[in-house]
Amino acid sequence: MKEVRKFALIFTLWSILLAPVAGLMAAGQEPIKIRFSHVVSENTPKGQGALLFKKLAEERLAGRVEVEVFPNSIRFTDEQVLLGLLFDDVQMAAPSLAKFRSFSDSIQVFDLPFLFNDLEQVHRFQSSETGRNLLDSMIPRGIKGLSYWDNGMRVISANRSIRTPADLAGLLLRIEPSAVIAAQYKSLGANTFALPFNRVSDGLRLGLVDGQENSWSNIQSQRFHEFQDYLVETNHSFQGYMVVTSVKFWDGLPADIREALQQILAEVSVEVNRIAVEKQRSSREAVITAMGPDRIVSLSDEERAVWRQAMQPIWKEFEHQIGVEVVNAAAEE
Ligand code: LMR
To answer: How much is the pTM?
Structure first.
């Protein structure tokens, strides 16, 4: 009986004094897991950015943070990933700016054709107050933007030669799920189909769609050009990304980890944008060589002005949804 009482006393003391400490130690040892899901191949600006983020986070926050990267839509398509963030199935993603329509009207500004002439204008807008505010525009819906990443300007490929906007009439084009991009082609007499990115190659190969628009690195890494006869260098809009997380996950991180991750992302963003410029050049060269230079239509300044004039009415159509001040801020940069 005496033995039993002694055991009970030791057990009670252990529970009061040591168990919470042991619990805390165990909790402290568990690294925070960040699953980062994206849809492109690893050999692209975004693919490289996700890997560099993992490397730096695991080096600088060793034992405290573990990052698992899921490329090529192996875990989620962009159509699924934002819900995945909200349900904590995944903690980070970097969808194209054309994919946030359900969460923020204003982010559609990036889809407007011929609004951005070059990457410098994009960067000036992104770092302006209006551009930075867009990172927070989905907070009421539980999504937080952490950083912008570049890919490049969009060009159009198709199974017939295109030089003028009128040449698009009657084509069925695969687009990203953007109302702006759908309206842009509809106004030129083309139809659109928002296939998920991981279906585009097959869609082109099987002839389900006649063409598509994308950045050079996506065209090359997904081999879209192998199933297309022609390509026109319109450079009509910017294809870039917003690195996002959920407000709940981000706010729940210890402050020092949050700050370290934010610093790492700032460094990774510089590197991603450097790789994007390099890829835009090298992927372009590789695609032109593979297709044959006579299959690539380059536009003169006058021809480009005709495209701009044909597509620009879309700005008016969407300026109230996006916000006139947002469109003006981007246009004036
Ligand atoms: C697309 O769907 O074409 C792109 O958004 C894919 C990507 O992430 O670059």
So the answer is: 0.90
